[in-house]
Amino acid sequence: MALHDYYLGLPQWQHPVWEGGCLAGGGTALQRYARQFSSVEGNTTFYGLPKPDTVKRWRDETPDDFRFCFKFHQDLSHRSALEVANPKVAEQFEVLEPLAHKIGLLNLQLPKSFNSEGIEYIHRFLLALPKAFNYSVEVRHPEFFAKGDEERAFNQMLLETGVNRVMFDTRPIFAVTAMDSATLDAQQKKPKVPLHVLATGQHPQVRFISTMQWQESDRYLDQWVTKVLQWIDEGRVPYLFFHTPDCAEAPELAARFVDKLKEAKPSVQGATPELLASEQSSLF
To answer: Which CA distances in Å does 142 have to 21, 88, 274?
Structure first.
């Protein structure tokens, strides 16, 4: 059951820059992060499953209304044909069990090489997963963005299963010429695909990456404020994650979005960086 109108976070909960700045204070890095944000992208599970003691520590260091959005291990998404019988599937659910009530979305991120011929594999994999959780799928192959039969079949499959299609908004980062190493790295690693805004499930997932000059993102953020409020009015509970090329100022970018969302609809509720947002408002 959702405790907020929306959930908001960053791709990580720890960064060297944050320790003496916006996320400074007592406690662990995760505790400091969870005081201002209501969710986080759990990229760590993509590379390796955490130890049981680590999972319990994450549970104990976050409030009850905090939500983790973990990725499925790359052995499932990148190194096999999404075999449900892969032991990594059961192992991942078993390892994360202490955090079950704090899992917002489990994300299947597929490689760029995964094309529409694999839609049936995705469908079969999703149908075999435990129904107690919410899921999202991120695709990167051009076929899924061409507005053809392949994309329509993919979207229809997600609509039928109630699984959320991840929307990765990379428009800002590809609208500039890279003048620094962080931006160049982001342009090389992030998917350069059209933005197709479509809620196929109850929890639309948005990943937004700005340029290093995140203050110039207002026109994009305004569009997302409108869409997020529409989703909330429809009874959906979106998950929003904000990136900058090096993530150093990702908290400020997220706070700017919160500020604009609150301005548009003050009653909207979410565990968000309100204090940080109010501090940033003086910059604009």
So the answer is: 40, 28, 38
Q: Which residues contact 12 (CB under 8 A, 6 or more apart)?
A: 40, 41, 43, 247
Listed residue (33, 38, 43) closest to 258, CA to CA: 38
In this prediction, residue 78 carries a pLDDT of: 78
User: Bridge-partner residues for 111, per DSSP?
Assistant: none
If one compares 53 and 273, the residue with the highest pLDDT of the two is 53
> Is 190 in contact with 168 (CB distance < 8 Å)?
yes
Q: Are 4 and 271 in contact (CB under 8 A)?
A: yes
Query: Could you tell me the two tokens for 223?
Result: 């569009």
Half-sphere exposure of 93 (CA within 13 A, CB side): 13
Contact 191, 228 (CB under 8 A): no
Rounded to an integer, what distance in angstroms lies between the CA atom of residue 266 and that of residue 148?
40
- Percent of the chain with pLDDT strictly greater than 70: 94
Element counts in the chain: helices (H) and strands (E): 12, 8
